[in-house]
Amino acid sequence: MWFVDPESPERRMSVSTHLEDGVVLVSLWSGQRCTGSFKMPLTDAPRLIGALADAKSSCPAPRHPALQRHRRDAMLAWARERIGLPARRRRPRLRLLK
């Protein structure tokens, strides 16, 4: 999956999953040349996903807090699926009935 730097379309970042090696490979590109790479163990991927979700959640919040939670949960589920991690089980929520 490719990501483009909005300030310089020549700069790109590639993220690929290599399940057989148990790593996520992040590489930085300038034009057609790879300028650096980082192999991250799949076991560290949830921390990265959490950091990205936290960064996203620090953006201006939607008007209703439930929408913000839904967006974060959806983004985490999508990211876990993309890197091949199992979906997290949702905990049942308690409701107060009057």
Principal-axis shape equals flat
Summarize the main sheet: 4 strands, antiparallel
Q: Which structural category do the helix and sheet elements fall into? A: alpha+beta
Please state how the strands of the largest beta sheet are arranged side by side.
1-2-3-4
Give the terminus-to-terminus CA distance: 49 Å
Query: How would you state the average pLDDT, rounded?
Result: 79
Q: β content, as a range?
A: 25-35%
Query: Any low-confidence stretches, pLDDT <50, length ≥5?
Result: none
Radius of gyration: 17 Å
Question: How much helical structure, as a percent, in the residues?
Answer: 25-40%
Number of domain units: 1
- Which series of helices and strands comes N to C? EEEEHH
Report the count of strand segments.
Answer: 4
User: In DSSP terms, counting alpha (H) and pi (I) runs of 4 or more, how many helices?
Assistant: 2
Features:
single chain, 98 residues, alpha+beta, four-stranded antiparallel β-sheet, flat
Give a verbal description of the structure.
The protein is α+β, with helices and mostly antiparallel strands and 98 residues long. It has one domain. The chain is built from 2 helices and 4 strands. Strands 1-2-3-4 form a 4-stranded antiparallel β-sheet, with no helix packed on it. Helix 1 runs antiparallel to helix 2.
Helix-strand layout with pairing:
Layout: E1 2-5, E2 8-18, E3 23-30, E4 33-41, H1 45-57, H2 65-82
Helix pairs in contact: 1-2
Describe the structure in brief.
The protein has 98 residues and is an alpha+beta fold.
